[in-house]
Amino acid sequence: MDTVLSGIRSTGNLHLGNYYGALRNFIKMQNENKCYFFIADLHSLTTHPDPAMLHENVKNVLVDYLAAGIDPEKSVIYVQSDVPEVAELYLYLNMHVYMGELAKTSSFKDKARKQPENVNAGLLTYPSLMAADILMHNADKVPVGKDQEQHLEMTRRFARRFNNFYKVDYFKEPVAYNFGQELVKIPGLDGSGKMGKSEGNCIFLSDSAKEIKKKVMRALTDSGPTEPNSVKPDYIENLFTIMRVVSTDEVVDHYEEKWNSCEIRYGDMKKQLAEDIINVTTPIRERILELEKNDDYLRKVVTEGADRARENAKKTIADVREIMGFKSF
Ligand code: TRP
């Protein structure tokens, strides 16, 4: 059985794009692997979050993941800051990570451009912290989006470098967990190609039916096609793309026909689309509302998660210290 580690950003609530993009695959992944899911609250410090919001953000993400089906009976779920060994491994790894390679990382250059007033050392060493998360568990596989591939590549390089330097075969080189065909990309309702937090066009798993209806009804449309079988503009194709994911084939075929014969009524289509989205999100939303009130349960999940994560972490730290030459008197 492979060990899989998945790091989750602790910013904002999960949306339909996250659900179809990753979350649904995570739920399957837990059955075939030893999975660790953790909430990366240490990483979030690089952007100086308001202390009054830090815990709330972590809680939201935890609740959303549990509600969507991440199962603490099958997987280890923990909060990164509950495992102090991560910070220790980060320090050790940093001694073998070079300024030059960090400074040319895409995510660093991007962030440095976006927050020129706060180009802190944590931002620069973000890839070392991520490597510490992964190498701590000697993970075989890490599910990553496109934007994280370079970080995973760096983790492999750091692992190799450590092994070479100390002449050991200690760290494994983790590879990307590949979902293949199953990765579905959900477009935005505003005509953009992607549903995303920074795009501000999201349907959240925690949205009420009313909010979802409102968002869908506001989606960009036009006065309809004038030529039979015309090519759909992107913003219309997007509605069909979401429909193909949440609705039945009959529903999709019906609206395809209406489009092709120039009889489409977007009002009807959106009503149907909203209803089918609501069908997907309602059970998750109901669990979110339950879990939010249940701090005892959440505490139990993350306490047990941290205990299990720390079993690996303590062993890794002991090994690494020994490899590096630390000895007790
Ligand atoms: N950097 C990842 C992101 O922004 C989150 C993350 C932190 C992560 N540590 C990780 C992902 C380790 C995978 C493995 O999405």
The helix content is 55-70%
The structure class reads: mainly alpha
Shape: elongated
How would you write the strand order of the largest sheet?
1-2-3
Query: What is the mean predicted local confidence, pLDDT?
Result: 95
Radius of gyration: 22 Å
Task: Pick out the low-confidence regions.
Answer: none
Number of strands: 5
How much of the sequence lies in strands comes to 5-15%
Could you tell me how far the N terminus lies from the C terminus, measured between alpha carbons in angstroms?
39 Å
Quick one: biggest sheet? 3 strands, parallel
CATH class of the largest domain equals: Alpha Beta
CATH superfamily of the largest domain: HUPs
Counting structural domains, the number is 2
The topology string of helices and strands comes to EHEHHEHHHHHEHEHHHHH
Number of helices: 14
Second CATH tier, the architecture of the largest domain: 3-Layer(aba) Sandwich
Task: Tell me what the structure shows.
- The structure is a single chain.
- With 329 residues, this protein is mainly alpha-helical.
- It folds into two domains: 3-184 and 295-324, HUPs (Rossmann fold, 3-Layer(aba) Sandwich); 209-289, Orthogonal Bundle (Tyrosyl-Transfer RNA Synthetase).
- The protein has helices at 16-32, 41-44, 51-68, 85-94, 99-103, 106-114, 121-124, 126-136, 149-166, 209-217, 234-246, 249-260, 266-292, 295-324, and strands at residues 3-9, 34-40, 76-79, 141-142, 175-176.
- The strands form two sheets. A three-stranded parallel β-sheet has the order 1-2-3, with helices on both faces. The protein has a two-stranded parallel sheet with strand order 4-5.
- The protein starts with a strand and ends in a 5-residue tail after the last helix.
- It binds tryptophan.
